[in-house]
Amino acid sequence: PPITVRTLSEAIGHPSKDIMRILWNEGNMVTINDGLSEEAALEISLELGVELEIKRQETAKDRLTLSVESDEDPANLEHRPPIVTILGHVDHGKTSLLDKIRSANVTSGEAGGITQHIASYQVDHNGQKVTFVDTPGHAAFGEMRARGANITDIIVLVVAADDGVMPQTKECISHAKSSGAPIIVAMNKCDLPDADEQKVLQDLAANEILPAEWGGEIEVIRTSATTGEGIENLLETILVTAELHEYKADPKRDAVGVCLEAFLDEGRGVMSWLIVQRGTMRVGDVILCGETYGRVRAMYNDRNEEIQEAPPSTPIKVAGLEEVPSAGEFFFVMPEIEEARQIANDRRHADRAEVLSSRRKSLSLDDLLSAARTGSVSDLPIIVKADAPGSIEAIRSELEKLDHPEVRVQIIHEAVGGVNESDVYLASASGAIIVAFHVIAEDRAEVLAEQEGVDIRRFRIIYELTDTIKRSLEGLLEPEA
Ligand code: GDP
Description:
Layout: H1 5-12, H2 16-25, H3 38-47, E1 52-56, E2 64-68, E3 78-79, E4 83-88, H4 94-104, E5 120-125, E6 128-133, H5 138-146, E7 154-160, H6 167-179, E8 183-188, H7 197-206, E9 220-222, H8 231-245, E10 248-249, E11 256-265, E12 269-278, E13 281-282, E14 286-289, E15 292-300, E16 309-310, E17 315-321, E18 330-334, H9 337-349, H10 352-359, H11 365-373, E19 379-386, H12 389-401, E20 408-416, H13 421-430, E21 433-437, H14 443-452, E22 456-459, H15 462-477
Parallel strand pairs: 4-6, 4-7, 7-8, 8-9, 19-20, 19-21, 21-22
Antiparallel strand pairs: 1-2, 3-10, 5-6, 11-12, 11-18, 12-17, 13-16, 14-15, 14-18, 15-17
Helix pairs in contact: 5-6, 5-13, 6-13, 11-15, 13-14
Bound molecules: guanosine-5'-diphosphate.
């Protein structure tokens, strides 16, 4: 392939090891001369904060040259609204909170629009905007991350006060931590008589979410999606967190962002919910989104009003793409429709297997260890699924005994139960392997692991597990053959 780690490094002016590290984290154990798909090159550049332009040379159709748009002038950076995702156990009130926050901030005249499903919306709180993304569950959140689309700035973790931390809450905590985004807890359903605040705080602390009121760093806001109590406080806490992190973007450049979801509308053709991350999107812009492209014919905001332009952090519904793009796909504004068409076509016709193998080679324990050998990985992230709490305890304590000077075994998630889709997405997004102790993977998780190239290792004896890892770690110390 015409783009390699080396040529990309030269084009964007970032060390090749930074590029390789991103790919390794995705489970793609590349070397400096390995080829990259265009999509991977664009995504890596985006992750490194550089806008890459792929130019096609007239002479040879498959020759590509890379050039970097001179952007990211710090002088152009402006504050942008934070993008917030709400995660939590089923029935703890995610949808109710999203609805309440929105309805509290929508005037009655617009109430008709609120019944429509929207993928994301923006509210104005005391003159400051906050963008909420409606992710259908934490597996979808993990899926977006596994694809490299990390759009969330702040995570609101919902925990029902009458129920406390539940299995899915734990999965959400692992996803949230692995994403690195700051977490705010909404202790919801505080209106219920059997709400038990102390138990929730204890549960949180037991899961390494130490509440601020107990000297930790995580704000726990009491809310009720039913009465509206605490919603103001939640919005304020989000804004304070945003202020602390100073989220910025350049509104002057061409728009770049992510597709949240898309569908075919009988009257209007393909409609795509996009979120603009950087730049300003305008009606008439040409966009490339995954394997499709098009010219923005019309653009609507979250209130279904037609708009002409959308600055960073704005959720928009766009008409004009040729085909329905997948959720989690990046979009880029391109100068020429012909160029966008060509790249989209090439992507569509690229051998699917080849695209997958260039983006996600299987991430096995051996790959991780060989990456550790070259000094590029110092953590060995592991997800532990087991048949009983006692097994997890035993595995944890055995793994903690594996003391290695350079490589740290890090359990990023542990739970009783079979391997599920959330585990696979978490593993894929964080470059982890999954250890299944006396449990098996759910069918769908198995298929997904295959697709994502996630290594699921089954063990029946703890010694087997620790011995495998230990021997591999020790192998690192031996000189390379
Ligand atoms: P999700 O699965 O997390 O999206 O949860 P939902 O928003 O669908 O809420 C599940 C159920 O809990 C619904 O019947 C809601 O009406 C109810 N619920 C949500 N928030 C509250 C709350 O703050 N107080 C009370 N009493 N009920 C709530």
